[in-house]
Amino acid sequence: MPALAVRTTCPYCGVGCGVTATPQPDGTLAVAGDAAHPASLGRLCVKGAALGETVDLRGRLLQPAIREQGELRDTDWDEALGRVAGGFRRIIDEHGPDAVALYVSGQMLTEDYYVANKLMKGFIGSANIDTNSRLCMSSSVAGHKRAFGEDIVPGCYEDFELADLVVLVGSNAAWCHPTLYQRILAAKAERPQMKVVVIDPRRTATVELADLHLPLKPGTDTWLFNGLLAYLARSGAADPGFVERHTDGLDAALKVAADCADPVAVARACRVDPALLLEFFELFASSEKVVTAYSQGVNQSSAGTDKVNGIINCHLLTGRIGRPGMGPFSLTGQPNAMGGREVGGLANMLAAHMDLDKPAQRDAVQSFWGAPRIASKPGLKAVDLFRAVEEGRVKAVWIIATNPVVSLPDADQVRRALDRCELVVVSDVVANTDTNDFADVLLPALAWGEKDGTVTNSERRISRQRAFLPAPGAARADWQVLCEVAQRMGFDGFDFASAHAIFDEHARLSAWRNEGERMFRLDGLAGMSRREYDELEPVQWPVMSKGEGSTRLFGDGRFAYADGKARFVPIVPRAPANATDQDYPLALNTGRVRDQWHTMTRTGKAPRLSNHVPEPFVDMHPQDALASGVREGELARVSSRWGEMVARVQHGGGIARGSVFVPIHWNGQTASHARVGALVNPVVDPVSGEPEFKHTPVCVQPFAVAWHGFILSRSELALDDAANWTRIEGGTHHRYEVAGRSHIARAAGWARKLLEVSDEDADWLEYEDQGSGMFRAAHIVDGRLESCLFVSRLPDLPAREWLGGLFAPEKLDAGDRASLLAGRAREGGAPAGPTVCSCFGVGRETIRIAIREKNLPDVAAVTACVKAGGNCGSCVPEIRKLLAETHVTQ
Ligand SMILES: Nc1nc2c(c(=O)[nH]1)N[C@H]1C(S)=C(S)[C@@H](COP(=O)(O)OP(=O)(O)OC[C@H]3O[C@@H](n4cnc5c(=O)[nH]c(N)nc54)[C@H](O)[C@@H]3O)O[C@H]1N2
Ligand SMILES: Nc1nc2c(c(=O)[nH]1)N[C@H]1C(S)=C(S)[C@@H](COP(=O)(O)OP(=O)(O)OC[C@H]3O[C@@H](n4cnc5c(=O)[nH]c(N)nc54)[C@H](O)[C@@H]3O)O[C@H]1N2
Ligand code: SF4
Ligand SMILES: [Mo]
Q1: Distances in whole angstroms, Cα of residue 140 to Cα of each of 257, 591, 712, 847
Q2: Which CATH number fits domain 835-889: 1.20.1330.10, 1.10.10.1100, 2.40.50.100, 3.50.50.60?
Q3: Which CATH number fits domain 6-53: 1.10.287, 2.40.10, 1.10.10, 2.20.25?
Q4: Cβ(334) to ligand 1 under 6 A?
Q5: Does ligand 2 come within 6 angstroms of the Cβ of 333?
Q6: Counting atoms of ligand 2 from 1, which one is nearest the CA of 680?
Q7: Which of 113, 235, 521, 625 is buried deepest, with most CB atoms within 10 A?
Q8: pLDDT, tens digit, for every residue of 82-116?
């Protein structure tokens, strides 16, 4: 490792991969996997590998700003902090502590999170602090607490390798937890008898390498796991000794599950092939080492907590928990989803796994903090919080490291709420987000690489994020800003000198008045010197003594309830909250794509991540498309009772009839009408408060336009008057996919105005064919391509990749100039198509042609021939799919 390499942790998903970051003399950043990090063992997925393309200061928020007469103006910290502290103080004095709120994020570091929670619950004295983890992990938290008595993930990543059966429920791990998925695949390659089962209504990339796929009807997991419980009890797979000694409540759970005793009836309810369902039941019954890992297909449901307990019930019945190679495993989404739970970031938690409704624990926290008061009742959960903001019950909200105008359900309601709110404070790292648009005070935060602290991954492993870049502009760490506001509000207990000091307090609180009733403990991390903290190696909690982490919990059958026993939870299956109806006949499922992270504020900057899925899409079954009157490749309007959006129709995403899938990433910064959150039903799980992001009744209709087009341009453009647009990062240029309603004959005038060229400009080349409805233009300045535009009545436009390449040279040669308006290189050459392998930039068509022409039999051969799949492996499932398709069509 070069001398300057800094070992840190990836800021994206909950796998928590180790990264070595090495700033280069030319100002760029070299990033590699950290072979010494136990979570990832040197692996990185494409998003991690592209981190170097996201750390420049383009688009960063570098100065505090204040809104006056509707306009933001830059200011200094003194005025900005005064505005926040003064505003919060005034509103609390006039309306009480419940009139203010914090809305924070699983992307904050533990130290930031700890301070936010301390300020709100201990000093302001309200529990109105909730987090985007409400949208993500809260059903798992609630399920863990019901089953185990505490929010604990019992297992570790190694269990996935040791298991004989890995069941992935509602998890597209190939795209969302890619390096963990790679670990499963590597283990499977070594031990081919190991089986992988995927339970997901869609045939996702994760399914490509599975042994069995159960494409269940959306929302029917509770039937399936009740059916499994009944089957296991019947088939002799139960562990009566374990159940007797270590659990409580089996009879009640079995009684309810008896309704699902007939596997054929369960298969019917879940709309899966009965033979496949039985195959899964038998596999589960006969495999002692089973890991059941689950993610948002489970959590984000109005029955999310029940789904979690339905899964845990099956592991308790068989005693398969806490031992190597087995257990229920909640995959966390964000890099610090777990850390947020440790500090009690949710509105219904306290701190260090203590509870708001236990007076002794409230007293413990208050005395430890020396706090003047302590919240005495749960605060508002995310969806209710923004309702209270709209109704004026909450008058000030401080949003940190999350983008609720995009990510909450019924997202237009969030806009209305923020529009009405007296004081909206937003801390972010970028200048322009859909939420920043509503900020009265905008506070610049240090980003990944600049900030310093800890995160905890899905397997309870605490890792350091270390700074290796200087603080840019006026940006400050979130914890520091929170402390300064607290101090200005007159509170003691916030004079931390560093993240290290905060971590130390957090570690000490975990042991405070803890006679063993809370398993979350960091005793062994308390009292570290600054140097020890800086050099901290990744370690799994509980850490009872220095250097002693805990790989697994509950292996001895002792759970966190006072009697040491785990609880079965009886599950009464129920369908998603709102069934589809005549007006909204399709069920909207939403989720992620491989190369983008949430609202794209960081991944959206990396050119190599932008071409895997360049545009918002609605994936639907061809027959549903036919019935809806829409066609593949054309734009469609998707609407629900709550809102609407526009996306391009696509097939091939492996979706059954009756559902559509839309990605969550696009928003007002990257597209004109693609904020899918505006459509999502705000109904929540009654126990956890987690929204039903995977099931909203919608309808799909044609979005009629007169022409389709795209523009490549060095400068950013304001396309407000286009009927629809999406902006894609091209590195040397911006790419815009556009569609218009005006007559195509007017396109020339529109283009000249948009690209600011005059009629006489000698370097403005134009080609128009009114007959076939086509217009093409290019603007060349000093021999360099400045912009080009292609418009057509049909969406049959030339490939963008070759044209994009023309922005690299300082001067276009005559040949390129001549073929520019043709939209393809003189020597021909097939277009590469959308990117499949982002590491080496290999397109779909390149791979297809190689498979066909060279008759490549498998992934290894494709990699050897065109490099695709040879680095991080995230695209291997897609290559497998292309191999299957190409061989079929040959
Ligand atoms: N590339 C990428 N990776 C990410 C993220 C990202 O933005 N981009 N975000 C991170 C975060 S915060 C999170 S929370 C995780 C999420 O990771 P995942 O949960 O794996 O991802 P999702 O795409 O939200 O949804 C998972 C699957 O649930 C399925 N599903 C829908 N309804 C049901 C159902 O009723 N039952 C079952 N069994 N399945 C259903 C969907 O079809 C989908 O394939 O990803 C993390 N990793
Ligand atoms: N329809 C639908 N909606 C969903 C989901 C879904 O599956 N479907 N999934 C939900 C889930 S699981 C999640 S986790 C959420 C995610 O949703 P969000 O949290 O809203 O998404 P992000 O884009 O990650 O927002 C993080 C923001 O914090 C900023 N930021 C990054 N680092 C820092 C920092 O260090 N400090 C500060 N102050 N700011 C920072 C980023 O620029 C960005 O604006 O979306 C939820 N919404
Ligand atoms: S798998 Fe997750 S933590 Fe690892 S590099 Fe990819 S996004 Fe980062
Ligand atoms: Mo998440």
Answers
A1: 21, 18, 44, 40
A2: 1.10.10.1100
A3: 2.20.25
A4: yes
A5: yes
A6: 1
A7: 113
A8: 999 999 999 999 999 999 999 999 999 999 999 99
